[in-house]
Design goal:
Number of helices: 4
Order of helices and strands: EEEEEEEHEEHEEEEEEHEEHEEE
Number of domains: 3
Strand content: 35-45%
Radius of gyration: 22 Å
Oligomer: single chain
Mean pLDDT: 82
Largest sheet: 5 strands, mixed
């Protein structure tokens, strides 16, 4: 089987777990399949070019090397078992915030360091929570498949207490739509591609944003975490 930099099969028919095709088949994008691919049956001795494929039983998204502000990609909470699977050893640390920091790492030395700082260990992550990870490399994370969601549909924003909150959304949502749900939110902060973006309604926060020449945040992208401050 020859490697390629692409990965969707064109002109491909899958019958009885065998691959049959009637012309030379090249790879063009990403193949999603819920079954195992077999390279056992050929028609007219044609050749097959293949690289890694993605299983449609999961949700995927790419994170960059370094700090990433992310959200669960579907409406399924994670428990300690699924957290360990989703955030592999190439993710050195996972953080969440709920009136204080919690952390998790698949790397024993890193988890020991988190324990030394007396951080609570993450045991579950709920839909609507923001997640901050440090990835050791650019990679594709895999999560059990589920339905999409938006933070504005979860009845979380309306019930936020005073202070800072780290939230997350699977579908993109505008700052204006979130503010319409809770007028006490006076500042939004997001981090994307090593850059802070922010917006604010009140003087202290607005002055800080203008002074630091931070780009204005208007929309929270899909699969993203973001901070809000509630007065």
């Amino acid at each position: 089987m020859q490697a390629s930099s692409y990965s969707r099969f064109a002109n491909l028919e899958i019958l009885n777990e065998d691959i049959i095709f009637n012309q030379t088949t090249h790879v063009v994008d990403t193949l999603y399949t819920s079954g195992t691919l077999y390279n056992e049956m050929y028609k007219n001795s044609d050749t097959l070019t293949h690289v890694n494929y993605l299983n449609s039983d999961y949700n995927y998204f790419v994170v960059t090397e370094g700090i990433n502000f992310i959200a669960l990609p579907n409406a399924n909470n994670l428990n300690i078992s699924t957290i360990a699977t989703a955030f592999n050893s190439n993710v050195s640390t996972v953080w969440t915030y709920d009136n204080g920091w919690s952390g998790y790492s698949n790397l024993p030395d890193r988890q020991e360091k988190l324990n030394e700082y007396n951080l609570s260990t993450i045991s579950d992550i709920s839909v609507g929570e923001g997640i901050i990870i440090y990835s050791l490399t650019e990679q594709t994370l895999k999560f059990p498949k589920g339905d999409s969601y938006s933070i504005k549909d979860l009845s979380i924003v309306e019930n936020l207490s005073i202070g800072w909150h780290l939230l997350g959304t699977n579908r993109s949502v505008s700052v204006a739509d979130i503010q319409a749900l809770n007028s006490n939110i006076v500042s939004f902060w997001a981090y994307n591609a090593a850059e802070w973006l922010a917006t604010a309604d009140e003087g202290e926060f607005l002055h800080s944003i203008e002074k630091r020449e931070i780009s204005i945040l208007e929309t929270i992208p899909s699969n993203s975490a973001f901070w809000v401050y509630v007065k």
